[in-house]
């Protein structure tokens, strides 16, 4: 379930728009938390609002002049695996799902925004990576990337993590053979 949180005036913050184009102030935005939120005006007059505070939830109040928005939502990417230290290289984590499109909005309504963090780094060897977190705009959710799947010697699973879009990670070379010095096999890259 996704619920909308209406910011009270005491918690609301104004993001002041910037940019070289005429009257950037028409793009000022009201958000629940202004940390790492940027607003600016494009040459054609459109306003852009970017939420970059990974791991945080905030709200965005739809401006009186808005009836629809174009959105770009990116889920958090996964971290790579550690592999088996000194024997096999790890794989990259998958990238987060990317959603784009148009959505109708209602002026004055407070929409919930969640920016998913990337996966935390892996621990000691051997260790799998960690998945990212989901990112949401109202009822739209971008899925996180998944970690690679190989920390076992001679394991056929040598692919990088699956992306949030469901694309498989790349396949590494020579994984499953032992190595010394610089002759280790590489793990697969994460999916995009």
What does this structure look like?
Residues 1-12 and 174-178 have low confidence and may be disordered. The chain is mainly beta and 192 residues long. It has one domain. The strands form 3 sheets. A 6-stranded antiparallel beta sheet has the order 1-2-5-8-9-10, with no helix packed on it. Strand 3 (37-41) and strand 4 (47-51) form a beta hairpin. The chain has strands at 13-15, 29-31, 37-41, 47-51, 57-61, 68-74, 98-104, 110-114, 135-137, 140-142. The radius of gyration is 21 Å and the shape is elongated. The two termini are 28 Å apart. 0% of the residues lie in helices and 24% in strands. It is built from no helices and 10 strands.
In summary, what is this structure?
The chain has 192 residues and is mainly beta. The protein has strands at residues 13-15, 29-31, 37-41, 47-51, 57-61, 68-74, 98-104, 110-114, 135-137, 140-142.
Helices and strands, with pairings:
Layout: E1 13-15, E2 29-31, E3 37-41, E4 47-51, E5 57-61, E6 68-74, E7 98-104, E8 110-114, E9 135-137, E10 140-142
Antiparallel strand pairs: 1-2, 2-5, 3-4, 5-8, 6-7, 8-9, 9-10
Nearest-integer average pLDDT: 73
Report the span from N to C terminus: 28 Å
Based on CA inertia axes, which overall geometry fits? elongated
Strand order of the largest sheet: 1-2-5-8-9-10
H/I helix tally: 0
How much strand? 15-25%
Which structural class is indicated by helix and strand composition? mainly beta
Indicate the low-confidence ranges by residue numbers: 1-12, 174-178
